[in-house]
Design brief:
- Two copies of one chain form a homodimer.
- The first copy, chain A, contains nine helices and five strands, in the order H-H-E-H-E-H-H-E-H-E-H-H-E-H.
- Chain A has a five-stranded parallel sheet, sandwiched between helices.
- In chain A, helix 5 packs parallel to helix 6.
- Chains A and B meet through helix 1, helix 2, helix 3 and helix 5 of A and helix 1, helix 2, helix 3 and helix 5 of B.
Chain lengths: 207, 207
């Protein structure tokens, strides 16, 4: 009977494991987390989508984690207090880490206003795999854009704890990448990120 | 200035979106969640690893979510009370859904003892993409295997709320797949799952 049944002990220990490097060899690129942080309306989602499209078109395993996907699902139980924001970013970091470990380039587009929360994610990921991108745009520009009317609502007090208005945004001190969406256009921002990924040998081969 | 900066409104709405079917076409298979449920030591992880290896060897984007990866990371704040188990499974379901939406075949290996928790995951995923696999093994066999000595500890009361001993296990009523690890060997169990995936056209092409 021992020979013919599923025996956890014997099989698990001897089971061939699929290593990250096996997955990366298969995919033709390394896994990484591209973490876009910045104010609301700074351009994070726009850059994320353009970057994802470019990566996908070049045969890369890639995916975006953003508010639409996370706030309605995994973190639907969380609000916007500092504690809940910390937990929100902690969970996103853990999920991003899982994706990175499959060898994907996972793009995270979240305001993620607290430095400590972002640094926590950096710490749980292998060196070089967490790429912090500061999507920098002056508050007044973001507020002028205000595509969803959120700043207007925040100014009226209709949205509490709104980053930049009634809640802090802590800029990255040493981000791997710094793009300025008030002076650089979308193509430039994406190209800067792609150049970094190539320079770090996350992306290899034909580009 | 409008033309040269990253404008959320204009770019987001017109940005080309990558659809699940684009990803699946690229990967050469469909995305799905293979959800292994059963008692501790029933053989879930063993089957998960063997299945993952087989899928990977056949050029499939695949990954395992199990206790080692989740309980130490995403769900490190949760215990084993019914409420915490429910939240644990809810989060795993949300993460599995994200992976499925990238076009991967994500293998989940968790006791997941409560029917309602598993059914909740089924509900948040598109029809046909949640594949419940009942990894069935009688309690006395699992307890005899006891590779980690957990049942012995549970019997002594050293582990509270241990499924099968001091906490319930609710068998699936209508699982897509039912394997019996006390009478079927590992290869048979994996083959049954693969046959189902082929039958459902999750897996296509050469096998």
């Amino acid at each position: 009977m021992t020979k013919t049944t599923v025996q956890k002990k014997s099989n698990t220990s001897s089971a061939p494991k699929i290593l990250l490097q096996d997955r990366e060899l298969r995919n033709g690129h390394k896994g990484a987390i591209v973490w876009l942080t910045g104010l609301s309306a700074a351009g994070k989602s726009t850059i994320a989508q353009a970057l994802e499209q470019k990566l996908f078109d070049n045969n890369t395993q890639t995916y975006i984690l953003d508010g639409d996907k996370i706030r309605k699902g995994l973190c639907s139980d969380l609000g916007f207090s500092p504690e809940d924001r910390a937990e929100n970013i902690r969970r996103i970091g853990e999920v991003a880490k899982l994706f990175q470990e499959t060898g994907a380039i996972i793009i995270v587009a979240f305001i993620s206003p607290y430095r400590a929360d972002r640094d926590h994610v950096r710490k749980i990921v292998s060196a070089g795999r967490f790429i912090e991108v500061f999507v920098d745009c002056p508050l007044k520009k973001c507020e002028a854009r205000d595509p969803k009317g959120l700043y207007a609502k925040a100014r009226k007090g209709e949205i509490p704890e709104f980053t930049g208005i009634s809640a802090p945004y802590e800029q990255p001190l040493h981000p791997e990448i710094h793009v300025k969406t008030d002076t650089q256009n979308l193509e430039q921002c994406v190209e800067i990120i792609l150049a970094y990924l190539k320079d770090q040998k996350i992306l290899t081969g034909q580009w």
